[in-house]
Design goal:
The complex is a heterodimer. By secondary structure, chain A is mainly beta. Chain A contains no helices and 9 strands. Chain B starts with a strand and ends with a strand. The chains are: A mainly beta, B mainly beta.
């Protein structure tokens, strides 16, 4: 099972919007609406930001939004803030018989 | 408040064994599927294993199948990971995490496992 493909890094200035892509296959991202996104600050545990493609857990800012088209999911952060600088990982349910989840390669977001 | 506290990590020689534990509180443990996810130093997240609420369904990543065993004790609100035949590439922070659906919602702070001679 290969990891989902994400860009290694994305950057933006405060107040701007950025989008992180997450590309998989029809066996994971494209086949199910079970894409989730996680934010991880250095030395900390990941935090769920988006689940089931576009749903935000309680307490997550509405500046974070998710979408999907075909085999590619996207996370958009609008009104970029300094505190958004972190690593972001996508994940998807996969129909592989030996797996439940597959994670993305991770994207480092830098606020300029 | 959901709390997941991992323990049992440490330094072990290649070929050795280690048992990780995760103490859960703040939610109805017996109602949730549980997972182990690991992160090698400076690397990304890797799903390791999942177990359903009643232990009826258990899954492993190919990289650990046959060497690791996940289990849970709902009476003790605890999750376990027995790791045998450890390799250098198993060196990572191991996170205990809950699943409410097909996503991982709560994560512990992790426990570091180092496999080295």
């Amino acid at each position: 099972q290969s990891a989902l493909t994400q860009p290694a890094s994305v950057s933006g200035s405060p107040g701007q919007s950025i989008t992180i892509s997450c590309t998989g296959t029809s066996s994971d991202v494209g086949g199910y609406n079970y894409v989730s996104w996680y934010q991880q600050h250095p030395g900390k545990a990941p935090k769920l930001m988006i689940y089931d493609v576009s749903n935000r857990p309680s307490g997550v800012s509405n500046r974070f939004s998710g979408s999907k088209s075909g085999n590619t999911a996207s996370l958009t952060i609008s009104g970029l803030q300094a505190e958004d600088e972190a690593d972001y990982y996508c994940s998807s349910y996969t129909s592989s018989s030996t797996h439940n989840y597959v994670f993305g390669t991770g994207t480092k977001v830098t606020v300029l | 408040e959901v709390q997941l506290v991992e323990s049992g990590g440490g330094l072990v020689k290649p070929g050795g064994s280690l048992r990780l534990s995760c103490a859960a509180s703040g939610f109805t443990f017996s109602s949730y599927s549980m997972n182990w996810v690991r992160q090698a130093p400076g690397k990304g997240l890797e799903w390791v294993s999942s177990i359903s609420s009643s232990s009826s369904y258990i899954y492993y990543a190919d990289s650990v199948k046959g060497r690791f065993t996940i289990s849970r004790d709902n009476a003790k609100n605890s999750l376990y990971l027995q790791m045998n035949s450890l390799r250098a590439e198993d060196t990572a922070v191991y996170y205990c995490a809950t699943s409410s659906g097909w996503y991982i919602d709560y994560w512990g702070q992790g426990t570091l496992v180092t496999v080295s001679s």
